Amino acid sequence: MTNETFDFTDHSHRRYNPLTDSWVLVSPHRAKRPWLGQQEAPSKNDAPEYDPKCYLCPNNTRASGSSNPAYANTYIFPNDFAAVKLEQPKLVESKGDTLKNRLCKVESVRGNCFVICFSPKHNLTIPQMKLEDLTQVVSAWQTLYSNLAKEAREEGKPYKYLQIFENKGTAMGCSNLHPHGQAWCLEAIPTEIAKELKSFKKYKDQYGTDLLGDYVKMELEEKSRLVLENEDFIVVVPYWAVWPFETMIVSKSKIPSVDKLNDREKKNLASIIKELTIKYDNLFETSFPYSMGIHQAPLNAEGEALNDSWFHMHFYPPLLRSATVRKFLVGFELLGEPQRDLTAEQAATRLRALDSKVHYLEKL
């Protein structure tokens, strides 16, 4: 032990994530070490507005042989290579209390997957889209959520949870650079969402309030991790963030799911998404990669699942020091627990200082 005063910007510590009941190791002093590891190529968006070889551009033929219509705004279609299927044979489960049945559990899962083309223009990304066009994307999310919930209620389709997400950039495994996201609808609640719902219930049972409602209140008071704010939403670098410039968009009021957004909230959500992603691109003056996803109430949720849900979005970007140096979750992160070299407060300070209105390409 030393006589030094503990410094959160220089001394290692662990931070608790109440959403998933887990911990992250923070080692801010490691940010000073020289980097001699892998460097990615800077991302350049020099694609044409229309690519005749792109499976997602209007009028083009997809890999399945189906053709896209001449769509003019957001377009949704069933994924030609879906991760889950609606129709498949029934799984015959093994009976009896055997070691294999104890240790090798399995269950069938059905569902459907969708591709969401954000724009007909091949060379756009979310921060480059017009606000009215991005608002149409949010409307498309709402329509898809509502339609699938209705199909589950009225047609008996086995839909329980809709995971809407976007992988942007090759660094996050995106195989087609046309601006698009995905939506996977399963008859089971995915693990991460199940963890959050369990934590929401535990917190409410213990304190009588909503976890994210209290978190929004605290972040608005402290402001050290606040990146953006409008009438209905905030953007923060979560106190427990794992990725270097990870952020979370959280609704200020209790909104369980995207279909419950009114017209003002819908526009404000689109606006704050655009502002955040402009900041991301401006950070290292590159088309900033990330994985983004919406966490919300299960389809046709009732009781605790509905009452505990609070709309929020996670952004997980991999870039660490520059447009060419990315974060890897390896070693201790895989075998022990997640670790980061930049505190949430330091990341928020850098993001806050960036322009959220003008994209860096507009300044060239």
Automatic annotation (TrEMBL):
Active site (catalytic residues): 180
Residues where Zn(2+) binds: 54, 57, 122, 178
A GO biological process held by the record: galactose catabolic process via UDP-galactose, Leloir pathway
GO molecular function: UDP-glucose:hexose-1-phosphate uridylyltransferase activity; zinc ion binding
Residue ranges of domain Galactose-1-phosphate uridyl transferase N-terminal in the record: 5-190
Cofactor note: Binds 1 zinc ion per subunit. Binds 1 Fe cation per subunit.
Classification via SUPFAM superfamilies: HIT-like
Name under which the protein is recorded: Galactose-1-phosphate uridylyltransferase
UniProt source species: Torulaspora delbrueckii
